[in-house]
Amino acid sequence: MDKNTMSKFEELKNRQVGADPDVLNWNERDLSTELIDAGKKTPGMDKPMLVITLVILLIGIIMVLSASFTRSLYLQGDPLRLFSRQLIFAVSGVALMLVTSRISVRTISRWSMQLLLVSIVLLVLVLIIGIRVNGARRWIGLGGENGFMTFQPSEIAKMALILSFAQMMCKLGRDRMRTFKFGVIPFAVVTGIMIVLLRMQPHLSAIIIITALAAIMMFAGGTKLRWFLLAVTILIAMISGFVFFQLRTADPDVAISNVSMDTVRENLDLRSLGYEGRRITAWLNPDADPLRDGFQIRQSLNAVGSGGLLGLGLGQSRQKHLYLPEEHNDYIFAIVCEELGFIGAMLILMLFALLIIRGYWLAMNANDKFSSLITIGITSLLAIQVFLNVAVVINLLPATGISLPFFSYGGTALWIQLVQIGIILSVSREIPLTRDMKKVKESGKLKEESGNSQL
Amino acid sequence: MSGGVRVRPGNKTGKKTGRKTGNKTGVRAGSAVTTPARRADQKISRALLVRTLFLLAICGISGFVLLAVRLYDVQIVNNSYFESRTLNSQLRETTINASRGTIYDVNGKILAMSGFVENIFISPLEMSLHDQDVRFIAEGLSYLLNVEIGSIIERAGRTNSQYQVIKHRVESDEADRVREFIIEHRIRGVHFEPATQRYYPNNNLASQVLGFVGSDDTGLDGIERRLNDELTGVSGRIIRLTNARGNDLLFAGFGDYMQAKDGNDVTLTLNMSVQYYIEKHLSQAIIDYDVQGGAMCIAMNPKTGEILAIAQYPNFDPNDFLSISERENERISHIEDEDEYQEAHRMAQFRQWRNRSLADSYEPGSVFKILTYAMALEENAANADSTFWCGGTIDVSVFSDVTQRNCWRRRGHDSMTLFSAMTNSCNIACIELGLKIGPRTFYKYIEAFGMFDRTGLDNSAEGRSLWWDESVFFNRRNQSQLASASFGQTFKVTPIQMITAAAAAVNGGYMMQPYIIKQITDSEGNIVEATEPTILRQVVSGETSALMRLMLEDVVNNGTGRNAQVRGYRIGGKTGTSENTEQLALRDEDDTSNKDYIVSFLGFAPADDPEIMILLLLDTPSHETGIYISGGSIAAPVVGRMLEDILPMSLGIMPELSSEDHRDINVHVPQITGQSVDEATASLEQQGYSFRVVGEGTTVTAQLPARNAFVASGTRVLVYTDTEVPRDLVIVPNLSGMSYSQARNALESQGLFIRTGGAPKTDTNASVSVQSIQADREVMYGSIVEVTLINAQIVEQRMN
């Protein structure tokens, strides 16, 4: 710490003592917050988080170039069409991220409930003015239907859910969070409203994410575990009951005792239940209808499987030559696996894991509960999306239509993801770095005044 | 990181708890700053930390472990499965059709060739996947390809199939129209694949020789079948990586290419021009003589054994080999029973495909006498000075059997020299020679002349000859068999055997290996295989052969072959008439009126140095025509006509005409129109034409016959000076049996012109046997009628 900081430090210490007992019990966090407020040099944003994000983003953009190259060339004749758009969004997105990281957590918390309101309005609005794609209204266009930008209100809703839940949880306090009345109902209502609105689009993947996100937020926020247990039990019972009923319909002789995973795989045919049913059937048995429902997952597995240990080499994917649909989008990870192989895919997954672990670590070290909760929310959202996307690509789960953060083509989604990282970086700014604090402590003045010597 | 954890504020430390309690008193009302309780809530509780750690373990670690395990399973464990499955869909194998080789005649003219066409097929699966309007597509294809719409719709209904051929072998312009239709309407599921189509540009020409190919491009008959392995190439393959649309993958070097090897080309010894003239006169002969059983003709170069032509009627068009000729169709059209009709139709097909010149044997009759004379001369059983006496019959009895053989001329030929015995085709002289030669020597020569074996021209298509067994033939009791055999009866040989043996008798005595495949070349033109003339053996000496040529020339100049004369050429030949033995066996003994005959003539030219030998067989000429049925009166003039065309036009051998010949030939009428009448008449007179001037004018405005018309020399030219040529229709008179001058007058009185063939028109005994335009037909004034003259005194033998 330079002289200037030290003098400010002294000044703060003197001002706080006796001024307000509520803020008197300053510690390192308060100190750093104040330091930030004072615009002084602070430990700054979390460098590992920033670096990992930028590395993932860089790889993602390169993969968009590689994956979109062929389709753009074949269909539009301009191989760089999608890539150049993504590049613009990535550069501006990084700027947005840095700007967001400068916004204080307090500001964010102040606007979180308003954001929830806005997101609900947008979810209603999209049903009216949304752009219809494949029978679903999920997009709002800025500047007309074919304007420069489109975005999904569901992305805003996810963000709003994280921020508003965190805010509500802080407001409610620990004790009330333990009750059913406060710990479950308000959150269930908000989530329910969102789910209903999303169902009207319809938008299955967003419903899944919103539901999972709400559960994680409530879990972190202190909702009693028994409600989760109850919900999970009911869910499992409903699913098994449904599966058994379906099997029974197909074959009356089926008994619970002889149902195995294989019989489910072979006999469960939900194709009559709309497109979700068809997707589940295709997931269980991709070869049942290889040219229609099972086509995409088979092509995806072909890409992943033919990658082998080292892959075909960057840019060498063959499945991207119009075989694999959505290769630059939801299935971009299949191209990653094909081109970079098991090694490359694992390195990228490890980067994601590092990002997520670092996110949770920052949450655990956050300055306050709100910061911690929004960091948990954002990190979990990231984790859910990565897991669900990759799991679909390798047919671990039925196809849902979730994009891979930082990889999949899509400008506004990338912006939102980078803004989310920006929020985490903002949270990280308020975390003092241990080493710096040690220096402060070593200055000896702290010991005399506060008696926080045990730290 | 662990250091970081330590930094977090433990709310369990006594100090903090203390602070908390202490803070309770100092709440600032309305303050943005939270109450102490609230503030405690804003601190990160232990529960939150634990639950965050739990989330970290699930989302940050377990999830990724799960993904990693599955990824390992897909990418490493099952790598080869997915790799091969992927390549299966990405690799496209395209077959490159090898082009079937071309068949050429000796001058490089194309007899059979292959062209590239396309098969058009649909993928009903693809059509249903892309929700295509089947009805609309079927209507379009039906209209463009002329395929029944019902069958297209029916095929399009097989939605599990990806390959239903709509039409085979579509020509490129037709395929292009379909292509336009597909592009215009953005149709999915209609595809093309390359195929080949065999073309026979000359249609019926040499059909039995060439054969034909089946729908799979495999030769089923003739040269096409015999040389199928040579003509068929080896298909090539392209294996390449493609994108999902089947186009070559960009930037991918992976692929394999195996060049198609086109089939070898075959050059035949066949001369298309010779073949053409032979078929032309053959088809005319069929009509002229109402030949019932078909006609065969072989032309051969007697010095080399090269086959110049093999023709047969009825024939067929290899482009459409299932159809039978009109004449055959007429013959079977009266059959009402469907099964019987189908059977008759099938038999007609077999008949037209069968190369009878090679496959069928016949009794050669008098043509065979060539061999008897040759072996007699060679064995010194006779010489140029030998004399014979024919009393009409000869007793060939041995022991108590009383057997006698008759000459065709019951009253006998009296005393003859060797030459006149031949020119008269006397049977008795032949029997005497045969008996002198003896059965063993006779058989030895028969074998040397190749009469027992297939000639080897095309063993798969050749039939066998039919002879008495040695043990029968050598038995003295059966001397009568030898007697009959010596003039060509009681055995059967194939036409190809006959002509090959006859060639040996006149070409210096050499038995030549007959052949039709001159060479086989690969697609680059390198010779793979070439056939050279092969002498199998020498059967008779050069002297004998030379004498034979003189004797046979004498047959045409002065004997039974007189009707085969061609002015300006030295022609040699021998007539033959034999009974249809199958029919004979079914006859009543005393029924003599309506025997069926095979009339034949073997001619060669030039007689002193033969370049071509033609054997013509007409199976069962009808008695209805009233023409005396014998080789000399029916077959000989046809061969004469053939040679008249072939020698100058195909072989480039020009006639050497004496002044007498000039009166006897057909000539091309000069151009006189436009000249003054005096000029024209003077030049006509000078060229030996008579003329009649019509009109009063001074300039010739028109002429009949037209310029360059081919008419008999001495024709009276009509010179029109001021009137138009009449355009009336006139009736052709019946010329049968008339002498040349009678026929000419009869025609000229109708305003018609004459052209002749057969016996010389100067021959006082020559009379018209057939005319090219039938009597009572209406033709344009000034038309030319071609007549065949035969020497009425030449009455060929007919054996009892």
Task: Describe the fold and architecture.
The complex is a heterodimer of chains A (455) and B (800). Chain A has 455 residues and is mostly helical. Chain A has two domains: 1-43 and 432-455; 52-233 and 299-393 and 406-430, no CATH class. Chain A is built from 19 helices and three strands. In chain A, strands 1-2-3 form a three-stranded antiparallel β-sheet. In chain A, helix 7 crosses helix 16 (369-393) and helix 10 (204-221) runs antiparallel to helix 16. Mean pLDDT of chain A is 82; it is low at 16-29, 36-41 and 444-455. Chain B is of the alpha+beta class. Chain B has four domains: 34-77; 93-265, Penicillin-binding protein 2a (Domain 2), CATH 3.90.1310.10; 365-650, 3-Layer(aba) Sandwich (Beta-lactamase), CATH 3.40.710; 662-791, Trypsin Inhibitor V, Chain A, CATH 3.30.10.20. In chain B, 36% of the residues lie in helices and 21% in strands. In chain B, helix 7 packs across helix 8, helix 7 packs antiparallel against helix 9 and helix 13 (272-288) runs antiparallel to helix 26 (631-650). Chains A and B meet through helix 2, helix 4, helix 7, helix 10 and helix 14 of A and helix 1, helix 2, helix 3, helix 4 and helix 5 of B.
What is the CATH topology descriptor of the largest domain in chain B?
A: Beta-lactamase
Distance between the termini of chain B: 129 Å
Structural class of chain B: alpha+beta
As residue ranges, the low-confidence spans of chain B are 1-34, 796-800
Defining traits:
heterodimer; A: 455 residues; mainly alpha; 3-stranded antiparallel β-sheet; 19 helices; disordered C terminus; B: 800 residues; alpha+beta; Penicillin-binding protein 2a (Domain 2); Beta-lactamase; 4 domains; 7-stranded mixed β-sheet; 21% strand; disordered N terminus
